[in-house]
Every structure is written in C-alpha cells, then in structure tokens.
Amino acid sequence: xxxxxxxxxxxxxxxxxxxxxxxxxxxxxxxxxxxxxxxxxxxxxxxxxxxxxxxxxxxxxxxxxxxxxxxxxxxxxxxxxxxxxxxxxxxxxxxxxxxxxxxxxxxxxxxxxxxxxxxxxxxxxxxxx
Length: 129
Fold this sequence. Notes:
The protein is α+β, with helices and mostly antiparallel strands. 38% of the residues lie in helices and 30% in strands.
C-alpha cells in the first residue's frame, strides 16, 4: 500500500532513536537541522510495526517530510530510524507556480475578452449586412 505525498528523494537528515525517543545517533542536514522526533509517532510505529509518515516544522517557515521505521538490533532491542527530507524546494516551486498562475490567468482572461470584443465588433456586424 502506498502512502500519500511520499517524496522519493535522498534524505537530508537521519536519526537513530530508542523507544523513549532519545536520539542515539544522527546525521544533520547542511544547515544543522535535526530530524524532528515525535514520541507519538514512535509509539504508533512500535504498536503497528510499520513505517509512519508525517510532516513537521524544522524552522518557522520550513516543513519536512518525516518517515519513522521500527527495527530491531541483533539483540532484539527495538529502535527507530527517523529520516527527513526538507520540503523547502517543493514549497518554493509551489509559490512560484501560484505567482505564475496569479499573473497569467488574468492576462489570458483579458486577451480572450479583447479577442471576443474584436470578433463582436468586426465580424458580427459584417454578417448582418
């Protein structure tokens, strides 16, 4: 079963977390952000024993897509691999698309209206002669 809105990109940050939510090892992203760890997500991953997907804020203006995988080490101890990918580029692309649509739609509507007006003024009166 596929999860909605899963980005198939290289993770930017990774944490290994124990069942209490304590980070035991991690790789930070370029800006030094850690993967946001949610105890509720860890509990749900342990209970359902399947990956959990969520979005979390890493800064006030930046979201990240997070996946939390449950796993066991060779001694049977449960731990979690928490992987995050910033949505910054996706958010920037969405803003650019909205700006493009906000500009191009009114321009297209204006051009279509002017074209319709031109047709009404030049072609329709000639057909009534």
